[in-house]
Specification:
Helix content of chain B: under 10%
Strand content of chain B: over 45%
Radius of gyration of chain B: 14 Å
Largest interface: A-B, 25 and 22 residues
Helix content of chain A: under 10%
Number of helices of chain A: 0
Distance between the termini of chain B: 41 Å
Largest sheet of chain B: 6 strands, mixed
Oligomer: heterodimer
Structural class of chain B: mainly beta
Number of strands of chain A: 11
């Protein structure tokens, strides 16, 4: 069965510091991968998606970036965090028969 | 662009009763999927149910069922025999199917917070 992992689970970072969040998927190959952000009390906003290694599409212009160095690894990064980057970050994989997406446990990021 | 509207920010129901969560969407597409996701206090997003737009029959998954009205662009979720563990934020989501494409993006509503009371 497929499993999706995210780490770290919780992160507190000062403004201006770098960021690296990692997502890995097990049990499937060549999945579509997605990064979402959920602000407090709001729905999910798609940030990036990837249909293959090195292929990244950005949905929202911001100071975040994403990379996919391996088939089942998806990384969300920033060179300098802003206060507005605080939120709950969810990684998801998709590409199954029913087109549904399955989500990881998420990372709670607080920028201070 | 597609939009998904959940008009009920919060709802509550007594344990063992039935509750219906509303969702409407706006699209000019004819080929799409609709989903309901559940996010309990742990914040893990869990797929509840899926509906293909080309299917007239409403999807069901145990105590969860949908009322899909394509012409009205309505996609409500009915939870029967509500349980305390159903307490969660529920999100309705839309996915357009692109012919020849390989990427499928979800557009989410803002969610409905459901509380099941003992």
């Amino acid at each position: 069965s497929q499993t999706i992992h995210q780490w770290p689970a919780t992160l507190v970072q000062p403004v201006g510091s770098p960021l690296s969040l990692e997502c890995t998927v097990e049990g499937t190959s060549n999945p579509n991968l997605y990064w979402y952000r959920q602000a407090a009390g709001r729905g999910l906003q798609l940030l990036f998606y990837s249909v293959g290694i090195g292929q990244i599409s950005s949905e929202v212009p911001q100071n975040l970036s994403a990379s996919r160095p391996q088939d089942r690894q998806f990384i969300l990064s920033s060179k300098k965090l802003l206060l507005s980057d605080s939120g709950f970050y969810l990684c998801a994989w998709g590409g199954g028969i029913g087109y549904e997406q399955y989500f990881g446990p998420g990372t709670r990021l607080t920028v201070t | 662009a597609q939009t998904v509207t959940q008009s009920q920010p919060e709802m509550s129901v007594q344990e063992a009763e039935t509750v219906t969560l509303s969702c409407t969407y706006d699209t000019s597409e004819s080929n799409y999927y609709l989903f309901w996701y559940k996010q309990p206090p742990s914040r893990q997003m869990i797929l509840v149910i899926r509906q293909e737009a080309y299917k007239q029959q409403n999807a069901t998954e145990n105590r969860f069922s949908v009322n899909f009205q394509k012409a009205a662009k309505s996609f409500s979720l009915k939870i029967s025999d509500s349980q305390l563990g159903d307490t969660a934020m529920y999100f309705c989501a839309f996915m357009k199917l692109k012919s020849g494409g390989s990427n499928y993006k979800l557009t989410f509503g803002k969610g409905t917070l459901l509380t099941v009371n003992p």
